[in-house]
Write a structure and sequence with these properties.
The complex is a heterodimer of chains A (109) and B (157). Chain A has no helices and eight strands. With 109 residues, chain A is mainly beta. Chain B has two helices and nine strands, in the order ααβββββββββ. The N and C termini of chain B lie far apart (50 Å). The chains are: A mainly beta (109), B alpha+beta (157).
Chain lengths: 109, 157
């Protein structure tokens, strides 16, 4: 199953310079582990989101490599130290080669 | 008289059926999956880190002691580090020694992260140890482990 719905991202809109902010993300995906068998006894092929990456103004700062042990509809939270205003880009890539992106703006006062 | 003869016969037949039932159930359950072992986790770590020494401490692994549902087990890792350009956490590898595959997640941090901390949710097939290994920018390794008791395994089926 490919990535089917828009991911949800929670980022504060504003931050002070030097403030460490928390970012929370959630995306819908079966995260088919490749361990399950269907009714006919055939192994359901693996299809997971294997990479999640977060960038700020084009510069990657956090990356997660997910394995089949990650739950369906994967949730990920992490941190970023705010320095300047700009835009976050979040990207999810799955085994089928599908990529989903999301962006969020941050204003540093 | 017939009752006398029949009764024990009946009993043994019931017993035989029970045993057959148990055997059939075991046959169904057994080949379902092969689970990783502690040795496999050790092997995986050797591939990543060679035979470099690992220290305790610095890494905080937050997992529930008892997970009622193995399909969704919250996990939070937090590594003690100033996260400056000179001294930061490069990566954190999380393993589970009782899942079909030993790896769970690998995080890559940068000084821009501000804090080497991340949370997600994982599947655990059975009661097992979760192990986190942090690699610092200096190359030093720190690890910690925690056992999670799983009531209902989270591994398809």
């Amino acid at each position: 199953m490919a990535i089917k719905s828009a991911p949800r991202v929670r980022v504060p809109a504003q931050a002070k310079a030097g403030e460490i902010i928390e970012i929370k993300t959630l995306i819908s995906h079966e995260m088919e582990s490749g361990q399950r068998k269907d009714a006919a006894g055939k192994t359901v092929p693996r299809d997971i989101i294997n990479t999640f990456e977060a960038s700020f103004n084009g510069k990657p700062f956090f990356k997660a490599e997910w394995f089949p042990s990650i739950s369906a509809n994967p949730f990920q939270s992490f941190f970023y130290k705010a320095r300047e205003s700009g835009e976050f880009t979040f990207s999810w890539k799955d085994d089928a080669g599908a990529e989903q992106k999301s962006t969020a703006k941050l204003t540093v006062a | 008289m017939t009752l006398h003869v029949d009764a024990p016969l009946f009993a043994t037949r019931r017993r035989a059926l029970q045993l057959a039932g148990v055997a059939a159930l075991a046959a169904v359950l057994a080949p379902r999956m092969s689970l990783a072992t502690e040795a496999q986790v050790a092997e995986e770590m050797k591939k990543l880190f060679g035979s470099k020494a690992m220290d305790e401490g610095k890494v905080k692994l937050d997992v529930p002691e008892i997970a009622e549902n193995g399909l969704v087990v919250p996990i939070n890792i937090d590594v003690d580090s100033p996260m400056t350009d000179a001294d930061f956490v490069k990566s954190v590898h999380v393993f589970a020694d009782g899942n079909p595959l030993p790896q769970v997640v690998t995080y890559h941090f940068t000084p821009e992260s501000g804090k080497a901390s991340a949370s997600t949710r994982m599947r655990l097939a059975q009661t097992q140890n979760v192990i986190a290994v942090a690699e610092m920018s200096s190359g030093a390794l720190f690890s910690t482990r925690a056992q999670v008791k799983v009531t209902i395994g989270g591994c398809g089926g």
